[in-house]
Amino acid sequence: MLFRVPRLTDVRELLDLALPVVIVHLGLMAMGVMDTMMVGRVSAEALAGVALGNLYYFTAAIFGLGTLAVLDPVVAQAAGAGDQEGVARGIQRGLVLAALLAVPIALALWPAPVILDWLGQPPDVVPIAGAYARASIPGTVGMLAFTALKQGLQALHRTRPIVVTIIVANLVNVFLNWVMIFGHLGFPALGAVGSAWATSLTRILLVALLLWLAWPVLRQQLIPFRRQAFASAPLLRMIRLGGPIGIQHQLEYGVFAIVGLLMGTLGTIAVAGHQVAINLASVTFMVPLGISTAAAVVVGHAVGRGDAEATTSSARSALVVAMVFMGSSALLFLFAPMWLARLYTDDADVLRIAAVLIPLAGVFQVFDGIQVTSIGILRGLGDTRGPMIAGLVGYWVLGLPVSLLLGLRLGGGPAGLWWGLVLGLVIVAGFLLWRVAQRLREPLRRVAIDQPIQVEV
After folding, report:
1. What residue spans define the domains of the chain?
2. N or C, where is the chain less crowded by C-beta within 10 Å?
3. What is the pLDDT of residue 133?
4. Closest Cα partner for 139 from 54, 26, 72, 42?
5. If 0-12 CB within 10 Å is exposed, 13-18 middle and 19+ buried, where does residue 288 land?
6. How far from chain centre, in Å, is Cα 372?
7. pLDDT digit of tens for each residue in the chain (457 aa)?
8. How is 27-83 classified by DSSP, letter by letter?
9. What residues have CB less than 8 Å from 212, skipping those under 6 apart?
10. Cα 36–38–41 angle (5° rounding)?
11. Which helix (H) or strand (E) covers residue 273, if one does?
12. Per-residue confidence (pLDDT) for residue 149, from 0 to 100
């Protein structure tokens, strides 16, 4: 059933939502890309500092950001079933969760300099990376609240305010980077740390601007703010459903973070070259990530309506579109690595490392697209534990040991570390594709937050 040609109407429905969602994901990614590109003109140490600082920030924040993706099935399935009260309660509980999750993230960010030094990172990079992570703390609440509102609006197919918000925020981020990195308009030149302050301020702007632009839609979802939004039992059920999403994100990002830290043991140039390659891979990844989000929504709507045929066809559509795009980007990575690397730096040593790693990113592009799209489909079905198990086995039990063996023990260096990532993605993609096929054969069931839920493995 899964591997038949999808219906054209379902492809169109997916793309209608996926295209603006992709723009949103690319816009969020663009802030980090611009930070990297602008700081890359300062020095290799500053570029490596941003790499480690960003790595540490998202290691601390990724569980919270992933957990808020619980709004995909909760709000989408409620909308598909015509349950407006369920939609409102879901979005409000998302904001409550965002506030709760901000506290442990901030506490984890503060000791960044000490932890990075303990992990053996380059002494010339640790102070920059630690200060970068600390300067990111003020924007954490804004980022989490924006994520909750964004997930809710996407589930309602209201993406235009999010797109406008992202475009404006990127323009502001570039301007603030210009001011704070290089020292203009009377500000001191803060270098890499200036980019962190710029991004932090921009993240606060994100939530304020989105509230303003989307208020005609959000007003009916947020006012009145229900007392039930603070009830502990439904919040715990949302965490039970969303926690595995956060853990899966943590497992996936964590293995990439570990590889990034291992790069630090190979020197500053290795970190900088790795940052260029991983940044490029992350940019292309935003497209299947957007398709994954759209798949979670359209599949969730179909589940809410009880439409099994639409559920399966929407899943097919998402997988086909993701594989076509990632196959095309893989060709670019394989045949133009040096041209892509020069977009980030002119440093000859950094270019040499990046040009080796970028084709490896091309190798795992298609598998990366399959696994993230499958995760979105499963999330729309209410299955959040399967991807968590796949990430644990594929990345940590199998992929990371191969990275350690090839990269450090056998002397393969940066390329050896990356081959473990390739293996992990292949294994995870294969398992999740199989799980999607299995779950689509089962009866459709809507998740329930205001009464006990069961999430099967």
Report:
1. 8-439
2. C
3. 92
4. 54
5. buried
6. 10
7. 565 666 777 778 888 888 898 888 888 878 877 887 788 778 778 888 887 888 889 889 999 999 999 998 888 888 888 888 888 998 999 999 999 999 999 999 999 999 988 888 788 888 889 999 999 999 999 999 999 999 999 888 899 999 999 999 999 999 999 999 998 988 888 888 899 999 999 999 999 999 999 999 999 899 988 888 898 888 898 999 899 999 998 898 888 878 877 887 787 788 788 878 888 888 888 889 889 999 999 999 889 888 888 888 889 999 999 999 999 998 999 898 888 888 877 778 888 888 888 988 888 888 999 999 999 999 999 899 999 999 999 999 999 999 999 888 888 888 888 898 889 999 999 999 999 999 998 888 887 777 644 433 3
8. HHHHHHHHHHHHHTTT-HHHHHHHHHHHHHHHHHHHHHHHHGGGHHHHHHHHHHTT-
9. none
10. 105
11. helix 268-305
12. 95
Cβ contacts of 336 within 8 Å, gap of 6 or more: none
What is the DSSP track for 156-190?
Answer: TT--HHHHHHHHHHHHHHHHHHHHHHHT-TT----
Task: Indicate the SS3 state at residue 376.
Answer: helix
- List the one residue out of 253, 250, 278, 251 whose CA is nearest residue 263: 278
Q: Quote the tokens at residue 448.
A: 């329930």
Is cis: bond before 73, omega within 30 of 0? no
Closest CA to 173 of 205, 148, 142, 125: 205
Residue holding tokens 């809410």? 304
Q: In angstroms, how far is CA 416 from the centroid of its own chain?
A: 25
Picking from 92, 90, 96, the residue whose alpha carbon sits closest to that of residue 74 is 90
Distinct helix (H) and strand (E) counts, the chain: 18, 0
At residue 124, the pLDDT reads 82
What backbone torsions phi and psi does residue 344 show, to the nearest 5 degrees?
-105, -35
Burial class of 220 by CB neighbour count within 10 A (0 to 12, 13 to 18, 19+): exposed
**Inter-residue contact 357 to 327 (CB < 8 Å):** no
Structure tokens at 337: 């690595």
Distance from C-alpha of 37 to C-alpha of 21, rounded to nearest angstrom: 24
- Which residue matches tokens 């611009």? 34
Using CA atoms, how far residue 379 sits from 2, 295, 397, in Å, is 17, 9, 23
168: which 2 tokens? 């404006």
**Whole-number Å distance between alpha carbons of 36 and 341:** 12
- Structure tokens given for 154: 């996407």
Q: Are 310 and 393 in contact (CB under 8 A)?
A: no
Give yes or no for a contact between 171 and 32, defined as CB atoms under 8 angstroms apart: no
Alpha-helical (H) ranges within 342-412 are 348-381, 385-391, 400-404
Tell me the backbone φ, ψ of residue 441, rounded to 5 degrees: -85, -10
